[in-house]
Amino acid sequence: MKSYQRCGRCLYKMKIKVYNFTNKESSGVVVKMSGSKIQKTNAMRILDSAKAEYSIHSYECNGAIDGISVAEKLGQNVDKVFKTLVTRGRSGEHYVFVIPVARELDLKKAAAAAGEKFVEMIHVKDINNITGYIRGGCSPIGMKKLFKTAIDSTAKGFETIIFSGGRIGMQIEMSPAALAGLIDADFADLTL
To answer: What 3-state DSSP class applies to 183?
Structure first.
């Protein structure tokens, strides 16, 4: 079914394609955006190339805001909205961790998941040089390089999760398993 609709939470008129699905736990609808009038991010282009099912959420803002505020603007459970954090290990390698916005990264658990003795958060000023994204718009998809990535195991409790679409004001919603498959990520207990 193709139609032009304006999502109650989104700011843009988009052409959407609706896919029905059923599984043993629930049934519902997955929405895939196509032919939209928005400027696509690298993350969205990669998802389109992979023919992945996803939906886009957008919100108005005047610069970076915290993840809890993003969840509130989207009317979503804060446990379902995830943030992308970038760290550097003792070896000098970078690692990406995707965790719920209301939670804090446990650096010891993160180091164990990365196979490092310790990891530390990168400086905000380095985010663009390392990932190609800016603070508040860092997506686990489409970074300059495919870094070893771990997604917090709480994501497996949701049919879909929401994370940055690669630009402030733009979020992507998709299956955590599909995200992990796309970016070759593992699931791990990562938070305090």
So the answer is: helix
